[in-house]
Amino acid sequence: MSVIGENIKEVLADIEEAKKGQRVSADSKLIAVSKTKPVEDLRDAYEAGMRDFGENKVQEIMDKIPALPGDIRWHMIGHLQTNKVKYLMGKVYLIHSVDTLKLAEEISKQSIKNNLTTDILIEINVAGEDSKFGTSDMDANLEMIKAISELDNVRVRGLMTIAPMTNDAESNRPYFRKLREFAYGAARPYIDGEPVLSMGMSGDYKVAVEEGATYVRVGSKIFGQRYYNI
Length: 230
Ligand SMILES: *Cc1c(COP(=O)(O)O)cnc(C)c1O
Hints:
Elements: H1 3-20, E1 29-33, H2 39-47, E2 52-55, H3 58-64, E3 73-76, H4 85-88, E4 94-98, H5 101-113, E5 118-123, H6 138-149, E6 154-160, H7 173-184, E7 196-198, H8 205-210, E8 215-218, H9 220-223
Parallel strand pairs: 1-2, 1-8, 2-3, 3-4, 4-5, 5-6, 6-7
């Protein structure tokens, strides 16, 4: 098995182990975050059984899709500009990074035009970091989710957060808990179906699973360090 395959096996085993310590039961799935990595690396991950891949640049997704098998579910996890929305129509399984009503309106407009429905997550900046997109003002987030849930041809499936960079995964636990509480609390009426919670990365995915993540997004732990386009 490839190094990437071995890494995936390890992460999946960690996820299974963390599930035993879950406070709330959730079917935590793994997204392999393959941004900046060459197609050969994604192929190794695919051979190891991965079907969910996360990318953060529209152009990179467009380049990789035709080079890889058609049963891959592509997840757009990076900041999305409204003028690029049109390229993603019908190409991605889930857009995790919807952080403004304006962006959601464009996704709605393009989805109507293409006669399809697009599944999205609302990005919440739970820790209130200036460097991140989205806001930590939960009243504002609620207003936004409510407005987005009323748009045609978009389905709000849940929430996503990028927790702070830290060497102490435990310190992110309150943020994961807060995201889940919001999804099952105030935001619940505006989420379509059982809430999807996209949270946890290489440094803290075990804690995120314990707190009920439905998707963890793991990059460097699978593919190794990235040298650009962090
Ligand atoms: C890059 C990225 C990840 C993966 O980060 P790692 O620390 O390498 O696991 C997860 N989520 C988002 C939104 C990212 O941009």
